[in-house]
Design a protein that fits this description.
By secondary structure, this protein is α/β, with parallel strands linked by helices. It has helices spanning 10-22, 25-32, 36-50, 66-93, 107-113, 118-124, 176-182, 231-239, 249-257, 288-302; strands at 55-57, 62-64, 99-105, 128-134, 148-153, 161-167, 170-174, 196-199, 207-211, 217-221, 227-228, 244-248, 262-264, 275-280. The longest helix is centred in the first third of the chain and has 28 residues, at 66-93.
Length: 314
């Protein structure tokens, strides 16, 4: 938006204050790192806007007029506020992390693998307050004022800065009770005879894809008694013995650890993997609070705690 002709800009104000405090155009120019003629033009521009002469010039010195002195006195509190704001803003980029940090986290992943540890970050950085939003929607980080987000999958091209901190893998599993009654599938083709719990947010929920060791793709049509867009509900149904679950490793890590679910078809890879990313609006100029959380969450997630019972070649 174009600036109003009636409003002085900060460059003009800075030139006037430097002139008033130093007493000469040369000294004011030296303070601001500008040419003396540029300082003179800016002060003249300010005078034209205000319609009053602010300083009397002579060959040896500059003296403020009555209007100039009164204007400077009104400016001093504003200048002090500006300096304080500048100092506070600079402190956010240097030194101890502090201030409010807004983060966006995936719903289930955030609840399972981030929320329980947030108190540890707050204990490390008592000057920071956290506001966390749990949602599977991709928020507009800049427009909605978020400092950082954790995102899953394969990220589209974006002006945001993404830092991959962990892998994410798809797998199949079922409860011991289900396997005792129906047996375990030995190949993907065997799944046509099993009850399969379908995740409806998958692009094609009626088929599951598998990649063999030689790279061949096998597509298997599946059916079953339960379908949902809530992956946690499908895991619960799988634990209860309702059928075979198509899930992400982080979602069923605990159930695999304690034996409530058993992994199936380990020699086959399932597409649609991706990773876990820490996303920030920019790479440079980040406040220390954002950098501190980014480094902390990257270290926390890089250990992939959900993979404790999952083979490294998954």
């Amino acid at each position: 938006m174009q600036q109003s002709e009636d409003v002085a800009d900060l460059g003009e104000l800075a030139a006037f204050v430097a002139l008033a405090e130093t007493g000469s155009f040369v000294a004011a120019a030296r303070r601001l790192g500008r040419d003396p003629t540029a300082i003179s033009r800016r002060v003249q521009g300010l005078e034209r806007r205000l319609g009053v002469r602010l300083a009397e010039r002579s060959t040896r010195r500059v003296a403020l007029t009555e209007a100039g002195g009164a204007f400077l006195e009104r400016l001093r509190p504003l200048l002090e506020d500006l300096r304080a704001a500048e100092s506070e803003a600079s402190a956010l980029a240097k030194g101890e992390p502090r201030g409010r940090l807004r983060i966006a986290l995936p719903s289930a992943f955030g609840r399972l693998w981030i929320a329980p540890s947030l108190s540890k970050f707050l204990a490390l950085h008592p000057g920071v307050t956290l506001e966390a939003q749990f949602s599977n929607a991709y928020v507009d980080m800049v427009g909605e004022g978020f400092d950082l987000a954790v995102r899953l999958g394969s990220l589209p091209d974006s002006r945001l800065v993404a830092r991959k901190v962990a892998e994410r893998h798809r797998l199949l599993c079922a409860a011991p009770a289900y396997l005792a009654e129906h047996g375990a599938p030995q190949t993907p083709a065997d799944l046509v005879r099993h009850s399969c719990l379908r995740f409806t947010d998958k692009p094609n929920p009626h088929v599951w894809e598998f990649v063999a060791g030689n790279g061949d793709l096998q597509v298997v049509p599946i059916s079953g008694p339960f379908a949902s867009d809530d992956a946690e509900a499908l895991v619960q149904a799988g634990v209860a013995g309702a059928g075979v679950v198509y899930a992400t490793d982080w979602l069923v890590g605990r159930e695999l650890v304690d034996g409530r679910l058993i992994r199936l078809l380990e020699d086959w890879r399932m597409p649609d993997e991706g990773g876990v990313y820490v996303v920030t609006p920019s790479r440079s100029g980040l406040p220390t609070k954002t950098r501190a959380f980014s480094d902390w969450i990257a270290a926390h997630l890089s250990r992939a705690p959900w993979r404790a019972a999952i083979r490294d070649d998954a």
